[in-house]
Write a structure and sequence with these properties.
The complex is a heterodimer. By secondary structure, chain A is mainly alpha-helical. In chain A, 79% of the residues lie in helices and 0% in strands. By secondary structure, chain B is of the alpha/beta class. In chain B, a hairpin with a 2-residue loop joins strand 13 and strand 14. The radius of gyration of chain B is 24 Å and the shape is elongated. The chains are: A mainly alpha, B alpha/beta.
Amino acid sequence: MNPTLIIASLTIKEAVRRRLLLAFLSITVVVVGLSAWGFDRLAHSQSLTSGESNLAVPQALILFMFMLSFVLALSASAIAAPSISSELESGVLMTVVTRPIRRSEVLIGKWLGLAALLAGYAVGVCVLQFAVVRIVSGFLPPNPVLVCVYLFAEGALLLTLSLLLSTRLPAIAVGVIGVAVFGAGWLGGVVGSLGTAFNISALRTIGQIGRFLLPTDGLWHAAIYYLQPASLIAEDGGSRQNPFYAQGAPAWPYLLWVACWFLIVLIAAVASFERREL
Amino acid sequence: MSQANWAEGTAVERSAVDGEAGLHGAAGSSPGTRPSQSAVSPAIHTVALTKRFGATTAVNSLSMTVERGEVFGFLGPNGAGKTTVVKLLLGLARPTGGDGLVLGAPLGDREARRQIGYLPELFRFQALLTAREVLRLHCRLLALPKHAWEEEVGSALLTVGLLKRGNDRVGTFSKGMQQRLGLGVALLGTPALVVLDEPTSALDPVGRHDVREIIRGLRDRGSTVFLNTHLLEEAEHVCDRVAVIDKGTAIATGSLDALLARQSTVRLRVGGLGEGWWSELGRFGRWRRQGEWNVVEGIDPSRIADLVDALVARGGRVEAVIPEHQTLEARFLELLSER
């Protein structure tokens, strides 16, 4: 077997034995289960007209998915943070990197393993949440697959950044930076939305720069777009300043930049790990 | 004393010749050559290997040769630079000067690592895997044929005394058991070179004895063992040759016999001579009185017979002659104090 895949399978095996997936999915089942009650109330409320209800359910779902995207992204950062640094500190990696294996294969193997875990979690969360909402309210996002893809990409982005940082910084520092960066990215998106709504070019520029430097908010807005029904998009006049609203699908050049961002950060992580003296 | 050379034909002399010839020429192979293609090259060969961390010199122009099939002790006090040398040899760190070859390949060469077993000083293994799974993982990383895995794993577990714990998770192991497992990992794939960095640091006396037996077994099957240790007794028991390193500099390299035989101590009980007679025999060594015994320190062992002859010639009655070989510890301390 290819050394990269050996490391990837080892990473998955260790995570499964740590019961990481089980823990995340258990918490998600509880939260999603509780949300079922809330969506049911919202969909069948006597105080809302059917039109209002048709708008309220998708908006509530977007808010709920934001919470889940937050959990997903931070989980990605948390599992990636100790992957290199802690194993170097403890000595676990010392016998691995002295085998006939490139350090790039170790790092990419870990990335693949962690990304596979993240993908599994993202799919699990999306399937559960959309199924619950569909059952209790009849609403299904227009493109649930792309929502899942963008949520996964958002988490994978933070995972990749954390892996890069993990080649040089201790796990705790990586974890803190991961949370701070994710928060800053989201805040940058909010600032950009306000700049657009109130036509303040400086704020708009900050938002745009932020989305290029750290595309988490850009990917979150891509997910939002595919969560919104056509009726909600038609109402966009008053929603421009709403940080939980997306005006359009992500542009191809932006998605291309996101792909480049992944590549650049992953190459930087490999270079950093290869240059590090152990 | 910058560097001692205790015996004729020791590695020190060979290193000097190799150094003049050039590193790659000495090893008989070019960089990137597969070790199997350069079977005549030494197991380890370094020329002026140097490593600096800022203003601190961890390894200072280290030149040494470890021949294939020998057990080579790399000795030194804590902080002498021993582990840094190991890391340089394995490519975990890059030298700031000089160069080296391991199994005929450049330092850190990926293919050469296929033939190297390594037990690091800081040993930890995947706590959630069983011992068998850890060993299988290393079989896969070594790209050993799948049909050989179980035999390799079973043999390694048996050798290090963990056969009954093979299916237990490593997280339940004591530190000593983890070190045994690390030794088992280092033995996989019949490596040509086994690098052991303080291999008995967590072991009890039984474990230490087992490690000595394992090292002797490795020598018997033709593997080279590079034993990095500050436990001199360990080196004394198993090493063919040793290098003593202090503050990053090799202060002595040679065979253990040559090191310990170079100077010796002899205890004598002599009657029939007056007081102060030994002042005439100062050329044999340093004399001192210890009760009814006369002790001659620093005597060349080959001259003990001459000393006895000289005593008899002076009318002395030699009642007892007890040669005492210097321990490695005493020699080690002597070397360090001479710097």
